[in-house]
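User: If you would, consider this record:
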Amino acid sequence: MRFKNATNFRDLAANVSVPLRRGRLYRSDHLGALDEGDAVAIRALGVSRVLDFRGVDERTSAACRLPDVQVHSLAIEPTIVQVLSELMAAGHKLTAADVVAHMQDTYRGFVRHSTHRFAEFFGLLLESDEPTVFHCTAGKDRTGFAAVLVLKALGADDDEVTRDYMQTNELLQPATIRGDWALPEHAAKVLYGVQPAFLDAALEEIDANWGGMQDYLRVGLGLGEAERQRLGPLYLEKS
């Protein structure tokens, strides 16, 4: 699957050996730049539900262009662009290490401040197994963390989770998601990709504050035994 204006679109089942049902969960960058061909092709996959992690301004400036779908907002407001913009405005010469550190803070923030959004995300997934796209703007951070949580909840191992997460670096074309602000090239290279260090920051936050991934899924995200027993049949192939 290759779409001109949603370059980070992919089936969540594509990079894992755990038997996820294909054609049920897709992750993507935003759907606000789709041309007619992209939209027709994505709808032909049967997609009928969109779960959107973008903030208010992001959604307003690039509304979903996929017709006849139900869009659910799970808004997590972006912070990294504002932080880096303020640093540059103050005369700070951004280094790649600066961007890595601020990206790590962003990922810690997913756990500290947005756990309720990821709990809502799972609540929607538990309602039905209709073909679904979940996305943010670039489909790499908020979406990437959501994909990690789904894959771990469905039994994927750490290597598989990392492989899916890192595929963004092969697929995402930054030209499709850049705004009207300029970063130094070395800083942009960090911002428009993913690194294990970003994800590790979130996982360390989970370990420190929730006692590990399984407790985070169970307590933080509301995936108790009954919910896990429903989730598997919805998104895993029958044995």
Notes: The mean pLDDT is 94. The chain has twelve helices and five strands. The longest helix spans residues 96-113. The domain at 10-231 is CATH 3.90.190.10 (Protein-Tyrosine Phosphatase; Chain A).
